[in-house]
């Protein structure tokens, strides 16, 4: 399977429609992901810290980049790799992500935390793909 192949039929490209918090203390983060056809996926149960990073990256602020993201960037530069897409999927009760890199060789890092993958996708402005079965019609109030 090639990293840069056409989008797989069981995944849909999404954008981040909303970043916020579930609780008033900003301990638990929340995202609303939206597909081109208006379907949504509400992602929660991740740290408020990651939500704050995603929000700042969406505003193209790179002032406070976490050390782990900088470390990944340096590893990629040293190995001539570029993160090109992330895929979000459910694995039992949790959300996971695969990170796709290309460069001197193709590399897929599998089964990582979806929230960190989302932050990296926003940081690098790359496609976010979500398994279609997670997307639901928007509920009207």
What composes the largest sheet?
7 strands, mixed
CATH architecture: Roll
Radius of gyration: 15 Å
Structural class: alpha+beta
The total of helices stands at 3
Unreliable runs: none
The tally of structural domains comes to 1
Give average pLDDT, whole number: 90
What pattern of helices and strands is seen along the backbone? EEEHHEEEHE
CATH topology: Bifunctional nuclease domain
DSSP E strands, number: 7
- What's the CATH class label? Alpha Beta
Strand order of the largest sheet: 3-2-1-7-4-5-6
- Shape call: globular
Task: Explain the overall architecture.
This protein is of the alpha+beta class. It has a single domain (11-134), classed as Bifunctional nuclease domain, CATH 3.10.690.10. 24% of the residues lie in helices and 42% in strands. It has 3 helices and 7 strands, in the order E-E-E-H-H-E-E-E-H-E. It has helices at 48-58, 67-78, 114-124; strands at 11-21, 28-35, 40-47, 81-91, 94-103, 107-113, 128-131. Strands 3-2-1-7-4-5-6 form a 7-stranded mixed beta sheet. Strand 4 (81-91) and strand 5 (94-103) form a beta hairpin. Helix 1 runs parallel beside helix 3 (114-124). The chain is globular, with a radius of gyration of 15 Å.
Brief rundown of the structure:
This protein has 141 residues and is of the alpha+beta class. The protein has helices at residues 48-58, 67-78, 114-124; strands spanning 11-21, 28-35, 40-47, 81-91, 94-103, 107-113, 128-131. β4 (81-91) and β5 (94-103) form a beta hairpin.
